Each structure stands twice: as structure tokens, then as C-alpha cells.
Input
Amino acid sequence: MHVQNDGVEKVTIIGSGPAGWTAAIYAARANLQPLVFEGMPTQTPSIQLPGGQLMLTTEVENYPGFPDGVTGPQMMEQFKKQALRFGTRVESKNVGCCDFSRRPFELCIDGEPGRVVRSHAVIIATGASANWLGLENEMRLARTGGGVSACAVCDGALPIFRNQPLAVVGGGDTAMEEASYLLKFASKVYVIHRRHELRASKIMQARILNHPHAEVVWDSVVVDVLGGDKVAGVRLKNVKTGQQFDLAVKGLFVAIGHTPNTQFLEGSGLALDEKGYIKTTDGFRTWTHIEGVFAAGDVCDKIYRQAVTAAGMGCKAAIDAERWLAEKGVH
Output
């Protein structure tokens, strides 16, 4: 039976990185007239940043179809144009809260008191934000492609890092993975850790501690990133002595974890794991524990965190939503 909309959206997409825009392209081509809340522009990386983490990635060389590379912002602009071409509607606003206990679902919009968007299906693709050190020069050089990154797999093979000394901040498995990957290209990799023992698993530690071109700088924190247009070094402080010293490196990789952008889901009834990532019911599907709510990209993927995997999940979420809506008689 055909269900009348009566002002209710068929599918609403929250987020606008590779997962969100790909979901919008597929949903729009399926005649679902998706509404995308792409987030609000901001000067600092934060929840629902329009375009997602790729807005902090200057060169993308590993996304298929761009043999000469493309900048992250350019890629997201192309994704958005493609979604708009097929009739996607976009609002540059943040979703402030969700009520999934009602059907249709209800979304409140930041900055618009009293406005409630009702939707039969919702795709959440708000991503996860890299945790940064919070230094002014760190963010400046991250935004301009000056040699600060939060993803070795994304950026480590770029020419500016090849055969150069690099630094990784962190002491967990992620930091060891980043350092191991960078050792394929760097002349030397320094791992900067605030304590005198690593938190990583023993096998991951061994890869770094036993590598001839890796060195751990113990009991130290980064207090500044040096360099004008490009990273020239980092200023460190020994947390035990308070002594500051400079380390000459050409790149800084921050590997102190990610925070999923799910704060706005508090009280929504959606199941999250202990770190705040959305739980899905099946590793191959985008279904959440609430029928009609789907998740895609880094908001539920803490393993791969790549543009291409996020886009693939966005495709799956739109197909899952389309089939679910058809079962419910929403056309």
C-alpha cells in the first residue's frame, strides 16, 4: 500500500563526507528525494564538519578514478555536485537531537527552536573526528597540507614524506600501526610517547622497538610544531624534567585516537559501543538495532577509516534504506 508523505521525508541523511554523499547519490537516483543535513562550516574540526575529515586532507592519491590525485575538498565538492544533480536537497545545518522512539522519526535542528523534521528512514554518516593535540601550528599545517596528518595510510606515501624523518604521536596500537606503515617510506620514524611504556599490544610494540629505523622518544609531549609552510620539526617537553628540546622532522602524524561524532544521538535510543560508535546488527549490512535507521562510514567503522570504504558503506546504506522503505510501502 502506498503511504502518503504528509510532509514526512522518505529518507534523511545526516552527514556529508564520502558516506553521506554516496548515500545521497544512490537515494536520489532511486527517487527517494533525500534531504541531507551536511553540518555547519567551522574553523575547528568538530561534529558534523561539512565534507568530513577529507576537508583536512590536501592530497588524495588512493581513491580510484583520480590517477593524478585530487584534494579532499575538491573530491567532496564533486560528490556533492553529483548528489545535487539527481535532486538531493541540502541544508547546511547540524542535527541537534533525534527521537527514534516515534515513527516517523523526529529530528531537531540546531539553531531552529521548534522545528522538527519527520522522516521514515534515517541514514547517519557523521563520521569520526581525529583527536588532535590542540596546538595552533598543528591545525594550521594540517589544513594547508604542510605535513601534519592524522592518517598515515591516507598521506604517508606522498612525496613530501618519502625518505624523510617523521614523527608519530601516541603509544597505542593505532600509533604502532601508523609508525609501521610510515617505515615503508620514511628515512626514520620517531614515536613520541608521554609515558615510559607503550600501551600497544606486545606484538605491535615489537615491530617498532626492534626496527632499526624507528626510535621511541619516551616521557615526552609535543608543545609546538615548527615550520612556516612545511613542518620543519617539533618542540618536545620531557614530562619528568620539564626540559624542552627540538626534534628535526618533516612530518607529524597524530595517532591518539578518534572520537565518533555521535554526541547528538544521546537519548535517541540508538545503540552505541563503549567508545560511542554506532553498533550495526551485521558486519555486512548498515542496519542498526532500530529498524529504519542506518549507519555508514567512520561513525560505525573504527577499523578502515578510508574514503573508499566509507563511500561503499554509503552505497549500502542507501540500498538498505530503499529496500526497507519499499517493504513498508513508502514509495
